[in-house]
C-alpha cells in the first residue's frame, strides 16, 4: 500500500444553527469541533462514535454536500472548500458516497439500470447507448447482480440487492474515494457480511480508498486499517485498528469496545479468533 495521503482534513468545524428572529431564539449546535485526520491512498479509515457525535456531518462536508463552518479539506493536496462549482463537478466522479439505504435514493418509477446509467450520461455524455448499456451490465455483474436486474424497479429488490445497486451506481463513474456512511446498518446480519465482503473485494479490484462511518465497532476490526473515535463533535482518539482494540486510551472508546465483548455468536467468535479482544 502506498502511504501517500489522498485526503487531508484539518480543523474541520461545523456549526448548525438558525439565524433567530423576534419569535425564535437563535440556537447553535457545534456538531463538529476542529477535527483533523488524513487518509492514505488505498486505506480504509474508520470514523466511529455514538449517535450525534458528528460522523455524518463530517462525511457530508467531505463530499461538499454541506458547507463547513471552518477548517480545510484537501483532496490530492488541493483544497476542495475553495473550489469553484465547475472544478468541484469534475471531482464528483472521483468522490462518491454510499448511504445506509442507498436504495431509498432510487427513483421508484425508473428501472435500476436506467438509474445506474444516469451518472454515466452525466459524466461521459455522448457515448453510444449500446456501450453505456454494456457498462451498466458489467457493473451489475461486478456487484453480484444478474443482467435482468437492469429492467427491475427498486421495489422489486431486497434491501441487500438495493444496496448492491447503490454501490454499482457509485462505482460506474470510476471513483477513487468513497464515503461509506453506515453502509450495512439497515441490513440483516447475513446480508451485512456479504456487502462488507463485496466492499473489500471492490477496494482491491479498483484500488479504492474508503472513509467508513459506523456508530459502533462491530465491523471496524475486520474492515478498517485505522480508526478515529468521535465524541460530541471532537476527535478523541485515533489509532491503527489493532492498537485501538488492544489499548483503548479513552473512556468512550472503552465503552464502545465493551459492547463488542457482549456480542453473541459469529461476530464475537470472529473477534476472539482474531485475538483482537
Ligand atoms: N441539519 C441539521 N441541523 C441542525 N442540527 C443538525 C443537523 N444535522 C445534524 N445536526 C446535529 O448535529 C450533531 C451531529 O449530528 P450527525 O448526524 O453528524 O451525528 P452522527 O454521529 O452521524 O449521528 P448518527 O450516528 O445518529 O447518524 C447532532 O447534535 C445533530 O442533532
Automatic annotation (TrEMBL):
Q: Provide an example Pfam family for this protein.
A: ABC_tran
Q: Signal peptide location in the record?
A: none
Domain annotation ABC transporter: ranges: 7-257
**A GO BP term, please?**
transmembrane transport
Q: Name one GO molecular function term.
A: ATP hydrolysis activity
Q: Does the keyword Transport apply?
A: yes
**What name does UniProt use for this protein?**
ABC transporter domain-containing protein
